């Protein structure tokens, strides 16, 4: 299992609508995220539109490929693209994972060996 965390920037003038759109994500989009193999997926919004996303997956490359080929994901990402600042391409394909520097469970497990 791999943990993926990423950042995006939501345009400040679109914050309210962005949040509202994520209160009721299309059921077919939710199904595609799950079918892609992404689990425990969350988005967190910080000040001035800083968005932090997190999910877990067994194979991130396969998950990205699945979503890249999904017509549902393509429609969702096309509708959502106007919310982001400085993003080249689809958000589900263009994010760069952040480097994980600490995980409690990993260190606890290693300290018990």
UniProtKB/TrEMBL annotation:
GO molecular function terms noted in the UniProt entry: racemase and epimerase activity, acting on carbohydrates and derivatives
Biological processes, Gene Ontology terms: rhamnose catabolic process
Name of a matching Pfam family: rhaM
Name of the protein described by the UniProt record: L-rhamnose 1-epimerase
Gene3D superfamilies per record: 3.30.70.100
SUPFAM superfamilies linked to this entry: Dimeric alpha+beta barrel (SSF54909)
